[in-house]
Amino acid sequence: MRKPNVNSDFIKECFSLSLINLMKENEYAAISITDICKSSGFGRTSYYKYFDNNKDNLLFYISHLKWEEYKKQNKGYTDEGKLLLNHIYNHKDFFLLLRKQNLDYIIIKILFNEFGVKPDEPEIYRYGKAFFTGAYFGIIYEWINQGCMDTPEDISKKFEDGIKLAIETEQAKKEN
User: Fold this and answer.
1) How far is CA 95 from the centre of its chain?
2) 136 and 85 in contact (C-beta within 8 Å)?
3) pLDDT score at 163
4) Structural contact between residues 62 and 108, judged by C-beta atoms closer than 8 angstroms
5) Is 7 helix (H, G, I), strand (E, B) or coil?
6) Among positive and negative, which fits the CA dihedral 118, 123, 125, 129?
7) How many CB atoms lie within 10 A of CB 36?
8) Backbone angles phi, psi at 117, to 5 degrees
9) What confidence tens digit (pLDDT) does each residue in 50-81 have?
10) What is the spatial distance between Cα 74 and Cα 78, in angstroms, rounded to a whole number?
11) pLDDT of residue 115
């Protein structure tokens, strides 16, 4: 019996949600495409129509399902850093799952795609953006390693206080 004609976004979302659910119980590297297909109810041909591998599937989930939500919230918001922290906090179970599965590199890839350098920007600006995007990843990485126990407001305050302390320390060194 043929399945009813369904929207391709729906099928991709089913594959992605199946992968995420399987990751809760299994090692990412051990999850086969067959496992995902059985869980989703769609066949391998459909899977390969949309994804080359599980990494593509996971990136779809992050960029099209999680990241689009973030972008919608971001319209008109002036402090992207705090918004990003709030977004991660609101989806901390997912980001903690990425950490548990040693898939942290995907977070930095998304950050650099979203906030990182663009080829048409001046070189000095690109280096500055690369520095701050990497630094922000470091903060997020440490926060996730700590289980996202602090609130986004606490993390922002710690970051601001850390910057102030570093500046004050450097100024004190120059005065002595």
Assistant:
1) 7
2) no
3) 84
4) no
5) coil
6) positive
7) 23
8) -70, 150
9) 999 999 999 888 877 566 666 676 666 567 77
10) 8
11) 74
